[in-house]
Amino acid sequence: xxxxxxxxxxxxxxxxxxxxxxxxxxxxxxxxxxxxxxxxxxxxxxxxxxxxxxxxxxxxxxxxxxxxxxxxxxxxxxxxxxxxxxxxxxxxxxxxxxxxxxxxxxxxxxxxxxxxxxxxxxxxxxxxxxxx
Length: 132
Prior knowledge:
With 132 residues, this protein is an alpha+beta fold. The chain is built from five helices and four strands; from the N terminus they run αββαααβαβ.
């Protein structure tokens, strides 16, 4: 029996987190790790207490807005935003941590990741935003 590497292990958990997404277009998961310990998890979807796109539809989809454009029209938060927010809400320091994400962060999230002092980012697939 072989054991997965730490990176494979955390990426598999990230895929599971993505399954909680409430976005109609893309399911993205994010996991913050430091010293081989999970600090926080996040997935893309509407802010807590607001209607989910699964329930009320997607404004960007209704208006045929391509992926990677007009982020401000999306009711949801990105997984990377949510994982940083979850850590902050629970008082968990994330400086020097590693981010595992199912999709490459968009340019907005990339800037947040830099300012949060997350030092390594692993992702599985690309993103339509050419600046990401």
